[in-house]
Amino acid sequence: MTIIARLRDCCASATALAASAAMILGPAAPAHAQGISLIRDTEIEAVMQGYTDPLLDAAGLDRDSVGFYLVGNNEFNAFVTRGQNIFMHTGAIVIAEYPGEIKAVIAHEIGHIEGAHLVRFGDGTRGAMATMIATLGLGIVAAMAGAGAGGAAIIASAPQFATLDMLRYTRTQEAAADQAAITFMDRTGQSSRGLVTTFERFRYQEVMSEARRYEYFRSHPLSSQRIEAMRRRVEASPYYDVEDSPEEIAELRRIQAKIIGFTVAPAQVFQRYPESDTSIEGRYARAVAYFRQGRLDHARERLAQLIEMEPENPFFHELEGQMLYESGRIADSVAPHRRAIDLMPDAPLLRVNLAASLIGTGESDALDEAVSHLRFALAREQQNSWAWFQLALAHEARGETAMAQLATAERFFSVGNSMQAYIFANRARDELDSGTPAWVRASELIAVAEPTPQEIREWNRAERNRHQPLASPASH
Predict the structure, then answer these.
(1) Three-state SS for 436?
(2) 7 CB contacts (<8 Å, ≥6 apart)?
(3) What is the CA radius of gyration of the chain?
(4) CA 426 to CA 286: how far, in whole Å?
(5) How far, in Å, CA of 131 to CA of 254, rounded?
(6) How far apart are the first and last CA of the chain?
(7) pTM of this prediction?
(8) Rounded CA gap, 52 and 46, in Å?
(9) Rounded CA gap, 262 and 258, in Å?
């Protein structure tokens, strides 16, 4: 499991996160503009994709048009943003009691996308503003008519009326997403009980202060009426009694253990998964916890037990490679990463992991192989900034400076930093042979990332503030 980005004020990011400033936060917005940590993990992503793809099909949405992102945060939360992106906190996965609860939450978020609630959220905001303006107008009229105290009271109440108006709009969307979620679950032959059990478990959030509520329930307000409306339809479904398979439950327990191992203090991991717990998930969590403590030998002993139990599991080999790589044993990490790819050859992230190990060896043949793996991964994940970074390292190690600069330009472009993409694409094109595919790509990046005069001025101002005045990005 790897943290790949720390995003702040997401509207500038290539992933198109959107934080809407409104009195009540709707489905389009994370409830704060603080940074969030995205994580990548092939195993967890595969499980979530298995949950999500059938529901997208049921909603009539193109699988490739909806992004799914994991947020490294132990709080229960999930939300959607503009551009049809679903974000799920790892906390929501850990807190779930069975797979159906996670599927139901995902189905609810898909309901927001299918219902175009992100687009319509602006209508609700405008309606709330209109309510506030109208209330202010009434207060002013009352004050001018001589009812000074009454007018002042009406003016003071304007934000409250606007908030109530927005709440009504948000709750209407939430109820619609609930009903859509049940429809999607029915179409896939799955029970929607998870929707009810999840909200029932957090019903107490309704009476807590805003500051103490989980983020999810600040942007997805609960009500008893809403839960009862869900319950009536869920219980009437012909799929109400459908259970998650034992294989799905075991799969969930594994990724929960993995997340806990990586995100919870090791002492708490060992308390939750004591040595007496010989289950696969128990061994998995302890292996990660020992690794995080710096006790590599203990971690590898537990991992060896897992590999003996399931020698064809690519994720156990991937974890061993990660442990060795991050412990500075670069050459030793190559073999387990290579074994993971043998078992799961189409996984881009596993290719990037192997490439990083190969680059770390510094051997010429290893660098050539690393470039091959990275090209494979980037053909499938063009926005993978970590892969572009590794490709830049590989080209630089091979003495291919221009290609390293082009890869760096691609990396900046993938994360939405057009200025730096423009600078490095210019540097690359200056050194590349005219007319080659790399030269053409550098020219394309220059064309799409070229800054406006205002952006150049702001960039120069920022550079001067860092005591590095530069005349113009184009001079690079």
Answers:
(1) coil
(2) 13, 15, 17, 35, 36, 37, 38
(3) 26
(4) 49
(5) 50
(6) 37
(7) 0.78
(8) 10
(9) 6
